[in-house]
Amino acid sequence: MADLLALSTRIVDSGIADVAVNRVTNQLSEVAENLAMVESFSHSVVWDSGDGLVCFDASHANTGQAVVSAMQQWRAQPIEAIVYTHGHSDHVGGSGPFAARMAADGFRAPRVIGHENVTRRFQRYRHTNDWNVAINARQFGGIQGDLENALNDLRPPTGGRKLSDFIPRDTLELTDSLSDFTTMKFGNETVEFHHARGETDDHLWSWFPEKKWIASGDFVIWNFPNAGNPQKVQRWPIEWAAALRAMIAKGPELLLPAHGLPIAGKERISRVLDEIATALEDLVRDVVTMMNAGETLNTIIHAVRVPEATLGKPYLRPLYDEPEFVVRNIWRLFGGWWDGAPSRLKPAPDEILAVELASLSGGADVLMRRAVELAAAGDLRLACHLADFAGWAAPDDPEIHQMRAEVYDARRKSEASLMSKGIFKGASRESEKIIKAALGEK
């Protein structure tokens, strides 16, 4: 077993993450008496309550079987309950294998505890299944070859079942649907379930008052908070920060996140939670201040910054989401979808604008050559604009799209966050598909 608490203490106290802090090992490590964590995608925190095992999250569909096997090797007991910290697929998709293992061992299916909005989330996912499968493939599709920067935890596991359903059909539904606050008794212990919006609208964090443990779900992910994901629905950074401050007020002595390392020590936990909350609060303050001053989104996203010292902390690095995307989500929360540029309220189609710009500049090849020059000079933001215009103006030209793919591959390599890498690699693949079609390849 790994000594996860010693590792997290060293990293938090030194401020240096010299090893991966998010790992998909599917190995179990004890972190307290009758308490363990299986590191996976996401983790499952498992507690021997005395009346059976209580598991906080069931991990991903492709890791659920390995996770439940690890915990059953630790304690070959029935799983009394699975607590969904929220309804994201990497937290609930493994529940089917959990139930299957219980049935194979002659035990009844576990209770499933979660916020009432989990049910509505499942309904939405099923209604938009193909969209969600596609955007997740793009989101996680750009990090191959970049695992040295500690992103190995953030790529969905390969192997296992091929998933055509974003929420697998054997995912367990809630048996215990909670609202804003509920207490439950397991064995001799009371557990408090607190609802708060943050990454999702169905998030629970759990407090063990006698033991002073908190199972925080994705309110702590050992990366910059996932409050700005460009392909997903609204996130709530203000409420996220408030939830972290509510956790601090409890005085926890052990923090159990669903991604990253557990953290021990009241002062250490308070400091980590405070720094994450402050980063979110400062972003909201700065964005709203500029909105109140009448600034456009274009101005705000290029002006509001999180200090580099903050982003350098081991639990705030922008390796998954990033502050620029959170800024956009704050704008969306308060200002709607229009960015303030009049021409973009009811814009011309991209391809029509691209053809016009190509005509004015002397052709799509002129735009594309300039894009390549800008990329070589390091101005990848502007290069990608011109590469897109060239590609839209010449949608079937393999030479144009070869250069566009190269520009976007360069952009992917320059980015730190998984979300940026995935989307920019997706753009490169779009052009690669056009090249293959032009050459008659499949």
Spans with pLDDT under 50 lasting ≥5 residues? 145-155, 158-162
- Give the helix/strand class: alpha/beta
The fraction of residues assigned to DSSP E strands is 5-15%
Largest sheet, in brief, is: 7 strands, mixed
Tally of individual helices: 16
Sequence-ordered SSE layout with sheet pairings:
Layout: H1 4-14, E1 27-32, E2 35-39, E3 44-48, E4 53-56, H2 64-74, E5 79-83, H3 89-92, H4 95-104, E6 111-115, H5 117-127, H6 129-139, E7 176-178, E8 181-186, E9 189-195, E10 204-208, E11 213-217, H7 237-250, E12 254-257, E13 263-264, H8 266-292, H9 297-301, H10 308-311, H11 323-335, H12 350-361, H13 364-376, H14 380-393, H15 398-414, H16 418-438
Parallel strand pairs: 4-5, 5-6, 6-7, 11-12
Antiparallel strand pairs: 1-2, 2-3, 3-4, 8-9, 9-10, 10-11, 12-13
Helix pairs in contact: 2-4, 7-8, 8-11, 12-13, 12-14, 13-14, 13-15, 14-15, 15-16
Tell me what the structure shows.
This protein has 442 residues and is α/β, with parallel strands linked by helices. The protein folds into 2 domains: 272 residues, Metallo-beta-lactamase, Chain A (4-Layer Sandwich), CATH 3.60.15.30; 91 residues, Alkyl sulfatase, dimerisation domain (Serine Threonine Protein Phosphatase 5, Tetratricopeptide repeat, Alpha Horseshoe), CATH 1.25.40.880. The protein is built from 16 helices and 13 strands. A 7-stranded mixed beta sheet has the order 1-2-3-4-5-6-7. α2 packs across α4 and α13 packs antiparallel against α14. The radius of gyration is 23 Å and the shape is globular.
